[in-house]
């Protein structure tokens, strides 16, 4: 009997979940901060949150990960905000994930496939994942959502978390909401909800991974359109029209790709709320506004480098990926707004074409949306 008692704390500690955050940009750092505030309070989690840092050398000559660990602040991607002493920055990807059974993926989507390849076979057998990544990969055989890439490459289940979540506002602890999308296992979804939920960050779950993930991905394309409208100073009515048309295309595109996508998902935080916040604030809107103000004469690459200080623009790349899907599937004419955003981004059309998109498509095909 006595030996059982003496082993109890060991088993208790072994049963606790360990969290690793893979990514440390603007949202990655805020996610780590949110999670770290909860792991301190929740007895089922180890306090420490490991955060993988894509290492870079700062102008001071110091390594970013070392500075984060010294100052408890991501001075490059989230300056002025303390992350919590239990956040440990780790520049070694494999080391960062090795002990964790709860993996939170939050990097720009173009890096996700490479990251998954690097940790293939190196994670715990009982690991679970959640993706906060907005975007998709387009392959020859069709589009792949990031959660699917994670599941397939790592052989683990993957939920998603999306919502009206401009990272800097959450860092200030202003109230917002988010949606966890899950496939089958409600219990795992609730564990993620528990890990993220705080009094100022209200998280709920829906059984619709693809719907939630596509909302988060596609709204960045609509935000580019909203930015064009702002840059051309067309006013709020026009922007509202673009948002409505964009939401309609988001819903139609998602349902064509996955018939399982639910209508109600578009009314969750990941749907209409994220669309609104991204079209009002956010970096996609901001860069697209500048693009239109310059009459499309400066490229998005240039504007991203100049305006975002290392943060990545997702909407332009997503517009290209969506366009590829539309071309492959013969759906171009049914999605005039999505198609036009891409044409403007690659400077085949002027920014003003954003409100003339119907001229580039056939009216009758849009009626079916
Ligand atoms: N920032 C937001 O407000 C916000 C909100 C919700 C969702 N998101 C989504 O979260 C995801 C991550 O965005 P973020 O804001 O944390 O990042 P970010 O755009 O602020 O920063 C870019 C990150 O990419 C890293 N990076 C650069 N080159 C890399 C490489 N070759 N390999 C791996 N990493 C590299 C950088 O070190 C940095 O951490 C994106 O999908 C984004 O759409 C962002």
From TrEMBL:
Positions of the Glycerol-3-phosphate dehydrogenase NAD-dependent C-terminal domain: 208-355
Entry binding sites for NAD(+): 23-28, 54, 111, 167, 283, 312, 314
Location of the active site: 219
Domain of life: Eukaryota
GO cellular component terms, A-Z: cytosol
Domain spans labelled Glycerol-3-phosphate dehydrogenase NAD-dependent N-terminal: 19-186
EC number of this enzyme: 1.1.1.8
InterPro entries: 6-PGluconate_DH-like_C_sf, 6PGD_dom2, G3P_DH_NAD-dep, G3P_DH_NAD-dep_C, G3P_DH_NAD-dep_euk, G3P_DH_NAD-dep_N, NAD(P)-bd_dom_sf
GO biological process: carbohydrate metabolic process; glycerol-3-phosphate catabolic process
Leading EC class: oxidoreductase
Reaction catalysis annotation: sn-glycerol 3-phosphate + NAD(+) = dihydroxyacetone phosphate + NADH + H(+)
Secretion signal span: none
Gene3D superfamilies attached to this UniProt entry: N-(1-d-carboxylethyl)-l-norvaline Dehydrogenase, domain 2 (1.10.1040.10), NAD(P)-binding Rossmann-like Domain (3.40.50.720)
Single GO term (MF): glycerol-3-phosphate dehydrogenase (NAD+) activity
Keywords per UniProt: NAD, Oxidoreductase
Keyword match Ubl conjugation: no
Pfam families named in the record: NAD_Gly3P_dh_C (PF07479), NAD_Gly3P_dh_N (PF01210)
UniProt keyword annotation of NAD present: yes
Binding site for substrate: 134, 283-284
NCBIfam families: glycerol3P_DH
Family that this chain belongs to: Belongs to the NAD-dependent glycerol-3-phosphate dehydrogenase family.
Descriptive protein name: Glycerol-3-phosphate dehydrogenase [NAD(+)]
Gene source species: Lithospermum erythrorhizon (Purple gromwell)
Species classification: Eukaryota, Viridiplantae, Streptophyta, Embryophyta, Tracheophyta
